[in-house]
């Protein structure tokens, strides 16, 4: 943090420093032109906490949108493979395709199509990473908010972060990344609970 | 068999719907949080619920508790990133019948759904 940012922080009573480093891209350039002193804004910027949250929202919205685009493409591939399988089935019934060697070749093509279909489904399932990543980011923001509020309390100035918008997982550590990584653990807890409930 | 899927992630809802359709359950209704889930449930016909935990408006735990207050028998499967033992126990106490931790494989979802439907 340079002196202008410290001054801005003190003057703004906890608001984000003017021409601050946290401002990104073109906005940052226009807010603080190079080789000139930071320009004081007439309106206070939103607290940095709000900016972090809105940036997080933007990141998750973009990744969710793009993940859905990938899912659309996978859906299309899946439909095309399905259509191909239907066409091949029709070809198999054709008089000219009754030669054993041709039938065998067609069966190989069908098997290969099934493999493609399975891989497409597998890829769709792997898209769960988007939701996992989003929840991990939310957990990070939760910690950032706590730090932000602690500093606000310490300095006695500035705005505290807004309330929780959604419930979040207790820890990032307990979140798995590999499919079914936590299955055995969850199953054993459920089983133990059911047994103790049955015993009364 | 109509299944209600409650999850704030559209990607996740899509993955669950896709998996369900592959195992023969294509009659699904979607909701993006617990409050919307209760509205869908109120429209009738739902025979099973698959719900997330961490959601805005009304989280999965509150949703399950509310549903259980109205319908003690409908099978509820919770599918969430929350993997801590105390979370799983809390969900079971709230009334879920079984629990799946994300990320999951389609086989796991199939196994849980089929076991709940007997």
Structural features, described:
The complex is a heterodimer of chains A (200) and B (118). Chain A has 200 residues and is mainly alpha-helical. Chain A has two domains: 45 residues, no CATH class; 153 residues. In chain A, helix 3 packs antiparallel against helix 4. The relative contact order of chain A is 0.09. The N terminus of chain A is likely disordered. Chain B has a five-stranded parallel sheet, with helices on both faces. In chain B, 47% of the residues lie in helices and 20% in strands. In chain B, helix 3 links the parallel strand 3 and strand 4. Chain B is of the alpha/beta class and 118 residues long. The interface between A and B is large, with 40 and 38 residues.
User: Overall mean pLDDT score of chain A?
Assistant: 74
Largest sheet of chain B: 5 strands, parallel
- First-to-last CA distance of chain A: 60 Å
CATH superfamily of chain B: Response regulator
CATH class of chain B: Alpha Beta
Query: Mind telling me the C-alpha Rg of chain B?
Result: 13 Å
Task: State which percent range the strand residues of chain A make up.
Answer: under 5%
Pattern of helices and strands of chain A:
HHHHHH
CATH topology of chain B: Rossmann fold
CATH architecture assignment of chain B: 3-Layer(aba) Sandwich
């Amino acid at each position: 943090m340079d002196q202008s940012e410290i001054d801005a922080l003190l003057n703004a009573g906890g608001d984000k420093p003017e021409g601050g480093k946290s401002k990104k891209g073109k906005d940052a350039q226009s807010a603080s032109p190079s080789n000139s002193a930071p320009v004081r804004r007439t309106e206070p910027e939103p607290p940095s906490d709000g900016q972090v949250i809105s940036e997080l929202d933007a990141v998750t919205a973009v990744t969710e949108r793009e993940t859905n685009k990938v899912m659309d493409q996978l859906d299309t591939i899946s439909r095309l493979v399905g259509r191909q399988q239907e066409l091949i089935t029709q070809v198999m019934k054709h008089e000219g395709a009754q030669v054993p060697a041709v039938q065998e070749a067609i069966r190989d093509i069908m098997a290969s199509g099934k493999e493609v279909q399975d891989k497409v489904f597998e890829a769709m399932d792997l898209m769960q990473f988007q939701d996992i990543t989003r929840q991990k980011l939310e957990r990070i923001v939760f910690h950032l908010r706590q730090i932000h509020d602690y500093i606000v309390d310490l300095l006695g100035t500035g705005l505290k972060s807004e309330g929780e918008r959604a419930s979040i997982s207790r820890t990032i550590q307990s979140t798995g990344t590999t499919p079914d990584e936590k299955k055995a653990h969850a199953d054993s807890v459920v089983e133990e609970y059911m047994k103790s409930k049955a015993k009364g | 068999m109509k299944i209600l899927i409650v999850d704030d992630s559209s990607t996740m809802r899509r993955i669950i719907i896709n998996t369900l359709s592959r195992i023969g359950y294509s009659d699904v209704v979607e909701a993006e949080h617990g409050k919307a889930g209760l509205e869908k449930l109120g429209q009738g016909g739902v025979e099973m619920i698959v719900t997330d935990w961490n959601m805005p408006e009304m989280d999965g735990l509150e949703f399950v508790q509310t549903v259980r207050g109205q319908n003690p028998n409908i099978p509820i499967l919770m599918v969430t990133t929350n993997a801590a033992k105390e979370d799983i126990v809390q969900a079971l106490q709230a009334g879920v019948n079984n629990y799946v931790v994300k990320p999951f494989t389609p086989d796991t979802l199939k196994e849980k759904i089929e076991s709940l439907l007997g």
